[in-house]
Specification:
Blueprint (H helix, E strand, L loop, with lengths): L9 E9 L2 E10 L5 E6 L13 E3 L1 E6 L20 H11 L5 H17 L2 E8 L15 H13 L2 E8 L21 H15 L5 E3 L2 E2 L7 H14 L5 E5 L3 H11 L3 H8 L6 E5 L5 H10 L2 E4 L1 H6 L7 H6 L3 E4 L9 H16 L13 H17 L14 E4 L12 H10 L5 E6 L2 E5 L2 E2 L2 H15 L3
Parallel strand pairs: 5-6, 6-7, 7-8, 7-9, 10-11, 11-12, 12-13
Antiparallel strand pairs: 1-2, 2-3, 4-14, 14-15, 15-16, 16-17
Helix pairs in contact: 2-3, 2-14, 4-5, 12-13
Length: 465
């Protein structure tokens, strides 16, 4: 006799986006560990609820600095000398000393609820706010990391936690600035931090760990090599993320230091491959672009943040044409909307080239579907989790679009994805499942009011002076 199915362990889908393409009248069964246990034709006797619209795999958000969500809307005034990435960074440094561990947890929990509503079902947290306001480690060096993990648990989002090593202020061992004191770790403290996160995440289906050497300017060659050795000893498949080539000044300083550009240096001096995610990589030569594409690493692109900071445009057309893998993240969270990241990725190239539909994938007529597939593949690889596809064995991370939304009326197949990416966005996300659990229902989170109240109290205190 077969197991009795519960209404809570499956979903009937009128229209669903599978790895093989669009399908109709499909039932998904969720396993006890939150995995997809079956994908099959729906039957009249299925007890599962019916999805309220088209069903998509949830998108991974591969790059997040959760605490920076608190700065949204507070950095849009230029000083007398103008404004750029480096002056924005000073504004962040002035804000950071105010943050207590409970503030970081409150901000992250609210952000992660917003991410779920925005179409993301997992996040790579590039976590570098480690110490107290004086720069001293907490009794448990992983105190802030535990707060991030707790926030992800409250929200119900999948997490790849990437503790950051920030060892110096600039290329060649330049001392750290006072504003960086909460980031900078000695190697011994950092090792304890990573080991604490590895222990906390061990055996957790929604929680993975990796490491994040902050950047070539903040981590010298010797420290970088030792940290790779550390992570190999703990988990040789764990992700490695690094900021690189985001700013022209960074590229110029790297050339002075090493004689090489940042991506050029990294590809020549580290075993860059599929477990790596190079975040931004905005300023590359054609040779670097082809080299990164050929490495199998993921380019982690954050179009709304890169636009907000005036970083520049990644050479997306050339990179994709070379077979490069990419994913998207919301980074500083000026915007938290998966569709908008994809839309801006394409629109930036249109403005640059003065042509349309530039990021069409081979064999795909739909630009929206091709972009979504790219971001699913790259985000899944970068987070090191079994997500990003609706098939047996993958985690049951799904988003259900609002089938009653006017912009989706009469749409079928890839027209749904084109409408979602280019003419919709987070307002079309109705229900969200992570590991088979519905965490957003009809646009709301079960703990929404409590999380929002805690966030509001933290923000009022932080902005009181």
């Amino acid at each position: 006799m077969g197991a009795v199915m519960s209404p809570n362990n499956g979903l009937q889908c009128g229209e669903i986006y599978l790895p093989s393409g669009w399908a109709r009248d499909i039932a998904i069964e969720f396993g006890a560990a939150g995995e997809i246990a079956a994908v099959r034709p729906a039957a009249p006797e299925d007890p599962f609820p019916k999805a309220a619209g088209p069903v998509l795999p949830g998108l991974p958000n591969l790059h997040s600095h959760a605490f920076q969500r608190a700065l949204a809307g507070l950095t849009e005034r230029a000083g007398p000398a103008g404004d750029d990435f480096w002056s924005w960074r000073q504004a962040v440094y002035r804000f950071v000393p105010k943050l207590a561990p409970e503030d970081v947890e409150a901000i992250a929990a609210q952000l992660y609820v917003d991410m779920l509503k925005g179409g993301y079902t997992s996040v790579g947290e590039f976590h570098y706010l480690h110490h107290d306001a004086q720069g001293a480690p907490y009794d448990d060096p992983a105190e802030m990391a535990h707060r991030i993990a707790s926030a992800s648990e409250r929200a119900g989002i999948g997490l790849t936690l990437l503790p950051v090593l920030y060892a110096q202020g600039g290329f060649g061992g330049t001392p750290a600035e006072p504003g960086q004191r909460r980031y900078v770790s000695g190697e011994e403290t950092y090792i304890r931090l990573v080991e604490g996160i590895a222990a906390e995440s061990d055996g957790q289906r929604r929680y993975r760990f990796g490491i994040a050497p902050h950047s070539l300017r903040a981590v010298g060659p010797e420290a970088l090599a030792r940290m790779i050795e550390l992570i190999d000893g703990l988990d040789s498949s764990a992700p490695i993320h690094i900021h690189i080539a985001e700013q022209i000044r960074e590229v110029e300083e790297c050339v002075v230091w090493s004689g090489c550009r940042p991506v050029e240096w990294l590809l020549a001096n580290a075993d860059v491959g599929r477990r790596w995610c190079l975040v931004h990589a905005t300023h590359m030569t054609a040779i670097e672009t082809a080299g990164l594409a050929g490495s199998g690493a993921v380019a982690g692109l954050c179009p709304t943040t890169e636009a907000d900071l005036g970083d520049g445009l990644f050479p997306t057309v050339e990179y994709v044409a070379s077979g490069g893998v990419l994913g998207v993240g919301s980074d500083s969270h000026v915007v938290v909307d998966a569709a908008e990241e994809l839309r801006l990725l394409e629109f930036g190239q249109r403005l640059l080239e003065r042509r349309r539909n530039l990021l069409r994938m081979a064999g795909r007529e739909s630009t929206g579907a091709g972009l979504y597939d790219l971001a699913l593949t790259g985000g899944t690889q970068a987070l090191g989790q079994e997500v990003g596809r609706i098939e047996i064995g993958a985690r049951a991370d799904l988003i259900v679009l609002d089938g009653d939304a006017p912009v989706l009326t009469g749409k079928r197949g890839d027209d749904i994805l084109d409408s979602y990416v280019f003419s919709g966005g987070r307002e079309l996300v109705r229900d969200v499942y992570v590991a088979g659990k519905r965490v957003i229902e009809s646009g709301r989170h079960a703990a929404e009011n409590e999380i929002a109240d805690t966030f509001a109290k933290a923000m009022r205190r932080l902005l009181a002076d």
